[in-house]
Amino acid sequence: MDSKVSEGGLNVTLTIRLLMHGKEVGSIIGKKGETVKKMREESGARINISEGNCPERIVTITGPTDAIFKAFAMIAYKFEEDITNSMSNSTATSKPPVTLRLVVPASQCGSLIGKGGSKIKEIRESTGAQVQVAGDMLPNSTERAVTISGTPDAIIQCVKQICVVMLESPPKGATIPYRPKPASTPVIFAGGQVRADPLAASTANLSLLLQHQPLPAYTIQGQYAIPHPDLTKLHQLAMQQTPFTPLGQTTPAFPGLDANPPASTHELTIPNDLIGCIIGRQGTKINEIRQMSGAQIKIANATEGSSERQITITGTPANISLAQYLINARLTSEVTGMGAL
């Protein structure tokens, strides 16, 4: 492998993910896709844009580090051009900075911040760009947003330094990538009825479980039919139409709930032949479910002569409900052959 240093980083292939609003994506794509085609050809990087009618889209840039820097330069200058054009029709006198949002695995953010904030301070001072690492993970993921703003040149220098940090400190453990939610999430219930979720995407954690639901929904597992637990409670929470509490925060998200509701325990039994899809290879899946739900989850050891395993979930009612949903989603994907979520 070619190990020569190339513009601030080893000349290796790297993938960087950006989070963009619809308008920004439109600017990158250009008329009939001409702008993104030009960016791909001139930078040599692969530039992919996530599908879907989402308010946010993920733009993935892959290639050798120098190709990534060229692609970032073209995006930053395009955004500056958009700002200049919008100012020609505006009375504003100060020019706003170009802003890009990177999506970075949370396990790499510590290296990016550095001990006592030393690394991020060094990047800010040496590049002149503003860099902010979000305190919370993006919904249903183990990634955080890193916002960079400044002149295009400052942003390019900043991205180079971030790439070096990411190459020196690879992600630890499994990363659950952030996937933006569509504005309206379809909900599939037992019997195959599909209904659009009327709530905002931010409530999708709970509300995509259920809408007006007169009958219990069931997850089919071979010969087993397990009712989704606590539908009524979940339904009441989801219908409040207020955002779900971001993980790691204790602010009450729903009126009438205590800021720190008492922890409770819920038990499930899962057939032995399906426990593997819940645990995952080396425990990756169960750890993802623990991280996303915020609940403690213990799986009992197999007992001789029993065809089932006991799962104990401990946490707030919202934590438990989310953990149950994620477990059921794993079971459904295994049974229907969808594989990993």
Sketch the topology as an H/E string, one letter per element.
EEEHHEEHEHHEEHEEHEEHEHHEEH
Gyration radius over CA: 23 Å
Q: Distance between termini?
A: 34 Å
Tell me about the largest β-sheet: 6 strands, antiparallel
Enumerate the spans where pLDDT stays under 50 for 5 or more consecutive residues.
1-9, 185-259
Strand order of the largest sheet: 4-5-3-6-8-7
Can you lay out the helices and strands and say which pair or pack?
Elements: E1 5-6, E2 9-10, E3 13-21, H1 22-29, H2 34-43, E4 46-49, E5 56-64, H3 65-87, E6 98-105, H4 106-113, H5 118-127, E7 130-133, E8 143-150, H6 152-168, E9 186-188, E10 194-196, H7 204-207, E11 218-221, E12 224-227, H8 231-238, E13 264-271, H9 272-279, H10 284-293, E14 296-299, E15 308-315, H11 317-335
Antiparallel strand pairs: 1-2, 3-5, 3-6, 4-5, 6-8, 7-8, 9-10, 11-12, 13-15, 14-15
Structure commentary:
By secondary structure, the chain is an alpha+beta fold. 37% of the residues lie in helices and 23% in strands. The protein contains eleven helices and 15 strands. It has helices spanning 22-29, 34-43, 65-87, 106-113, 118-127, 152-168, 204-207, 231-238, 272-279, 284-293, 317-335, and strands at residues 5-6, 9-10, 13-21, 46-49, 56-64, 98-105, 130-133, 143-150, 186-188, 194-196, 218-221, 224-227, 264-271, 296-299, 308-315. The strands form five sheets. Strands 4-5-3-6-8-7 form a six-stranded antiparallel β-sheet. Strand 11 (218-221) and strand 12 (224-227) form a beta hairpin. Helix 2 (34-43) runs antiparallel to helix 3 and helix 3 packs antiparallel against helix 6. The longest helix has 23 residues, at 65-87. Mean pLDDT is 75; it is low at 1-9 and 185-259.
